[in-house]
Amino acid sequence: MSHGVLRGSGAGALTDRYVTEVVRRIPAGQRGDVADELRATIADTVEARGPDGLDAAERDVLTEMGDPIRLAAQYADRPLALIGAGSYPAYVRLLTVLLCAVLPVVTALGVVLDVLDGQGAAEVIGGAVGAVFSVGAQMIAWLTVVFALVERFGSGKRSGPIGRTWTPDDLPAPRTPNRRGAAACAATAWHALLVALIVWQHTVQPYRTAHGKRLDVLDPGLWSGWIWPILAGLAGLVALDVIRAVRVPARSLAVWSIAAEVAFTLPLAWVVHRREFFNPAFLSDANGSWQAPDSFYTVVVLGVLAVGAGEVLKRFREARG
């Protein structure tokens, strides 16, 4: 039975999700051959169990093959002696939760406390970066030590992998291309709108004072310096978002997207930090004698950097496939 027959019979969706989870964790050069080998192996094993109950047979075969993380490690020829093949999937999943969920919360709490303490943007950013490295390193080190001790001293008291037995129900939901295309279209519209607004406010000068004088909203001095890398980054993001909306993302596309995001985010954060983003005449006329506190600019800078870092992280994941 070929994989095409398995799919035509109504089964095969779980196989595709399983194969995707395996190959995304191995080097790109191996993915095609490994995917073909896995699909053929699964289809042949299901066929050997008879033509009846293909869905149930497919689930049983995948359950017997085990956690895709462990199988990917075997294909990638990664030594797992310190943690052990049985413990490795649980180790990876728990480490992912710590670094992707717990670490950001701890860092965010530290940032909030620093802002409330009246520290400037540079001090807050430095504290956040230090927290990411120090707390993240502690999480990795202690989790590794715990799993290594369990592997060393608990191997005789347990059988099988740590945690409950893996089943196909643990496979992540399949990615939906339509949703990804819609997100790319929305990103295109948003970045294009930002470009249009920046140019429009400079050419039209929409703000008018009580005396009838027209003003830029943004600092006109930006047009002799920092506005150009910001616009270049936005223009690059627009072009790359259009490409992402009409084709499957490739590693090179993700790399260019990271470069464009950095070109846009870092200059923007810098001019906000230096309070050179808005036109001083516009702020004076609009706010009167009121001035935004230092903490306001600190929070804005951190917000810009956080959004940019989130986008860069998404592109890294995209590059990994």
What does this structure look like?
- With 321 residues, the protein is mainly α.
- It is 70% helix and 1% strand.
- It contains twelve helices and two strands.
- It has a two-stranded antiparallel sheet with strand order 1-2.
- α6 packs antiparallel against α7.
- About 2% of the residues have low confidence.
**How are the strands of the biggest sheet laid out side by side?**
1-2
Give start-end ranges of low-pLDDT stretches: 155-160
Q: What is the radius of gyration computed over CA atoms, rounded to a whole number of angstroms?
A: 26 Å
Mean pLDDT: 77
For the sheet with most strands, the description reads: 2 strands, antiparallel
Shape, per Cα inertia axes: elongated
Topology pattern, helix = H, strand = E: HHHHHHHHEEHHHH
Number of strands: 2
Number of discrete helical segments: 12
As a percent range, the share of helical residues equals over 70%
Coarse structural class: mainly alpha
Classify the beta-strand content into a percent band.
under 5%
Instruction: Describe the oligomeric state of these chains in a short phrase.
Output: single chain
Please give the alpha-carbon distance between the first and last residues: 29 Å
